[in-house]
From TrEMBL:
Protein name: Exocyst subunit Exo70 family protein
Organism: Rhododendron williamsianum
Domain Exocyst complex subunit Exo70 C-terminal intervals: 2-214
A Pfam short name: Exo70_C
Keywords attached to this entry: Exocytosis, Protein transport, Transport
Length: 250
């Protein structure tokens, strides 16, 4: 009887220690002050470390649920879900802080997009998905998309503006594309200046961003991507050339 009571006391102590450990880990993740910046905006070491920790937890989830039941008579699944959710929230909060280290706002968005995408992909491939649920996954996929949209806006809006007719005026005072404008009177100097600006901005963008990696969405893309960029360029150039289908396939 005495041994049984000792076992119960020990189990409760283990449960309490587990609770305290998770709380300490959550706090450590949120307050991690590592100054090492990921220069190219890829997955931060903290992200991969936390994800591996969560995967490790789920390798022993049956034991953890027993400990949670000893500590709290509530739903063990709900308790494990709450613990995991808090750890994920702490990680995202820390990543938001780390993203502010970048001077380039486009790289800030790429960093957040890469890291949150990595988190979502890892959750979808693990048992954590069963507890966090589809809603959690969908919400965070939308967050990834929001950062992608922000990246595109910051990186490309000024460059693409150079290729629009907005702001190009004809010599008669009308604007290109308006009813009063005359395309023949369009200032050549203004068009040349637009292309010059485009070339400079695009070259700068290419020089910076060709060094940045993107987290791949999946393996074996050749299974679902039929045309390469070179194929598309060649095929678009063949439009309206009057060739038969057999001639195009040669």
């Amino acid at each position: 009887m005495e041994m049984r009571e000792s076992a119960v006391v020990l189990t409760k102590r283990l449960a309490q220690t587990a609770q305290e450990t998770f709380g300490d880990f959550e706090e450590a993740v949120e307050k991690d002050a590592t100054k090492t910046a990921v220069l190219d905006g890829t997955v931060h070491p903290l992200t991969s470390y936390v994800i591996n920790y969560v995967k490790f937890l789920f390798d022993y989830q049956s034991t953890l649920k027993l400990l949670f039941q000893e500590f709290d008579e509530g739903d063990a699944d709900a308790r494990l879900t709450a613990v995991t959710t808090k750890i994920m929230q702490a990680l995202q909060s820390n990543l938001d802080g780390k993203s502010k280290q970048y001077k380039d706002p486009a790289l800030t968005q790429l960093f957040l997009m890469n890291n949150i995408h990595y988190i979502v992909r890892s959750v979808r491939r693990s048992e954590a998905k069963d507890l966090l649920g589809d809603d959690w996954v969908q919400i965070h996929r939308r967050i990834v998309q929001q950062h992608a949209n922000q990246y595109k806006r910051i990186s490309w809006s000024k460059i693409l503006q150079c290729l629009t007719v907005q702001g190009l005026s004809s010599s008669s005072g009308g604007q290109l594309g308006s009813d009063s404008g005359s395309n023949s009177g369009l200032s050549r100097a203004m068009v040349k200046e637009r292309f010059k600006t485009f070339n400079i901005q695009f070259e700068e963008l290419h020089q910076r961003q060709s060094q940045w990696p993107m987290i791949e969405n999946g393996k074996n893309p050749q299974k679902y991507i039929r045309f390469s960029p070179e194929d598309l360029e060649r095929m678009l150039a063949e439009f309206f050339e009057g060739k038969t289908w057999s001639e195009q396939k040669r």
